[in-house]
What does this fold into?
Amino acid sequence: MRVLGIDVGEKRYGISISDALKITAQNLKTIEYRDKKSLFVELKNIINSENVGEVVIGLPLNMNGTHGDAAKKAIGFADELKAQIDIPIVMWDERLSTKQAERMMISFNTSRGKRKKKIDGIASQIFLQSYLNTKGNKINEV
It folds into this structure.
C-alpha cells in the first residue's frame, strides 16, 4: 500500500505519492480546483488506481504552532475526505514546505509561470517525504 500526500491550496491541490515500500515520495500531479465534487472524484480515482492505504494532508500551521485560516481549511478538507474514503488520514505539519519548494525551483531556474503551476505538487512531495522519513522504514538499517 502506498501513501498519498495532499497539499490543500486555494486554486490548486498538490498531490504526491510514495513508492510501494514507503521510502520515497514523488510528485504525482497538481489538481486545478473546479468544485468539491470533481476534486473528490479525482482523489478517489487516484486512491483506487494507485493502491493507496493512507493519506497525509499538509497542515499549514503558523510559525508559533497555532492554527490560522489555512490550517482550518486543511482540517475541514480532511474531515470532508474522511466521510468519503475508508482509509486512515493523517494531518502533517507542512510549515515552510512551499517556501522550500519555491527555493528549489528557483535554484533550477524554473520560470515564474511554471513555478506557480508546480509548487503545490512539490510542496506535497516535500512534506510527504518528511512524513515517510519520520515513520522510518527500517529496511535499510544495519
Observations:
- The first strand starts at residue 2 and ends at 7.
- The beta strands are 2-7, 12-18, 25-32, 52-59, 89-93.
- Helices lie at 36-49, 69-82, 97-107, 112-135.
- The domain at 2-136 is CATH 3.30.420.140 (Nucleotidyltransferase; domain 5).
